[in-house]
Amino acid sequence: MTVPRVWICLFVWTAAATLTTSGATSTILYPKVNGTESLTCECPDHACQEVFWYRYLEKSNSLQFLLYFNSAGTFEHGNMADKHRFKGSASSGQRPIYFLRITGLQKDEAGLYSCMFKMKINTIPDGYYIRPGVNPPTLQPPTVKIEKPKQSCRSCKPFSPKGCKRSVLWPGIGALLLLAGILAGTLYYFSRLPKKCRHQFAKTNQLR
C-alpha cells in the first residue's frame, strides 16, 4: 500500500504549523549514543486508525516524515527514514496506542519526535524531545527542615543547659529555706519557755 502524496503533504504542512504555534512542553529523553528509545502515541478515542510519525531535527532545522502506520499493521517509511532503525507497532483496544521504536540514535538526531492521526489532524500529542549523548541534569536533593527538640528538665544531665539547672536549683533552695525557718521557729519557741518548764521537759526526756 502506498500512502497518497496529498496526505503526506497535508501532514507535513500541519506538523510545521503546529511546531511554530505550540507552546506545550514535551517529555525530554536522554538516550546514549547508539541507544534505543520507544515512543508512545495514544489516541483520545477509537477513531484513530492511522498515524504519521515525524521528527523535527534541531541541527538541520528540518521536518522529516518518518513512518506511516495503521491499526491493521500496514506501514510505509519516509524517504529519509531508515527501515531498519524505525519500526512501528500498535496495540488493540477501545483506544488504539501506537508505538515507534528507534535504534542507533546519534547526536545529530536531537530534536522533537511526535505523531499525528490521519483523521484528527487537529489533535497532535506533545511528543518527545530526544537528546542523544547528553547527560540528564542532576536534581538537587530536597531540603529537609529538622526541628530542634524542646528541652525538658525531666531528663536533666550534668552537661544540660543552664536554664535546665536553674529550674532544678530553685526548688532545692526553697526546701532548705523552709527547713531553716522551721528550725529557727522551734529554737525560738523553746527559748521563750520558763526555765522550770525547760527543766521538766529535759528531765522527762531523760526518764524516757
Automatic annotation (TrEMBL):
The GO cellular component terms are: cell surface; membrane
Q: Which residues form the Ig-like domain?
A: 4-115
GO annotation terms (biological process): adaptive immune response; regulation of immune response
Q: Where is the signal peptide?
A: 1-17
Look up and give the membrane topology term.
Answer: Single-pass type I membrane protein
Pfam entry (one): V-set
Q: Out of the domains of life, which is the source?
A: Eukaryota
Query: Localized where?
Result: Membrane
GO molecular function annotation: coreceptor activity; MHC class I protein binding
User: Which chain regions cross the lipid bilayer?
Assistant: 168-190
Keywords, A to Z? Adaptive immunity, Disulfide bond, Glycoprotein, Immunity, Immunoglobulin domain, Membrane, Signal, Transmembrane, Transmembrane helix
Which PANTHER family does the entry mention? T-CELL SURFACE GLYCOPROTEIN CD8 BETA CHAIN (PTHR11292), T-CELL SURFACE GLYCOPROTEIN CD8 BETA CHAIN-RELATED (PTHR11292:SF7)
What is this protein's name?
CD8 beta 2
